[in-house]
Input
Amino acid sequence: MADPPAIVKSIVRLPCLDHTGVMRIPVMLILVALLGACQPMSIYYRAGVSVAKAEDDKLNCEVAALKDAPVATQIRREPSVFVPPRQICNAAGVCTVRGGYWLPGRTYTVDVNASLRGRLVDRCMAQKGYQPVSIPPCPQSVADAAPGGATRTLPTLTPSSCVIRNPDGSFLIVNRG
Output
């Protein structure tokens, strides 16, 4: 390739390493994690069922779906892109033409059965009496006033229900008055 190393370096990067070679966490990853706490929580819901039973039922449905629609990974590649030749001129007006070059397409994998597996899990959970719901996060004032702990049994949801996510992955569903 006749292009300068800067172009190559702009294509080939070592993410998450600083100039000393020490691993660092990208700021975007931290922001995504923090914003995740502000997103609604989607769960399979059936009033009066213990959280442990709901998780067990979901796991059983996922295992059954995996048997019926196993992982079917396909390797795919985006098309290559041709960067055309370009003219570069210096301050004296002397111009040279740099040759064009190809950038290879990104290679990635796709599980073609993932969507089918999701539908099978949805159907299995519906047959067990669950429905998918999305519960909004509680405002900070409600979270501050709520007792600590985690929901053990799924309560009856109301339009004012909200959820507090705990750092350990558990959650507390609050029915605001």
Summary: Residues 40-70+130-177 form one domain. The two ends are 68 Å apart (CA to CA). Residues 51 and 127 are 18 Å apart (CA to CA).
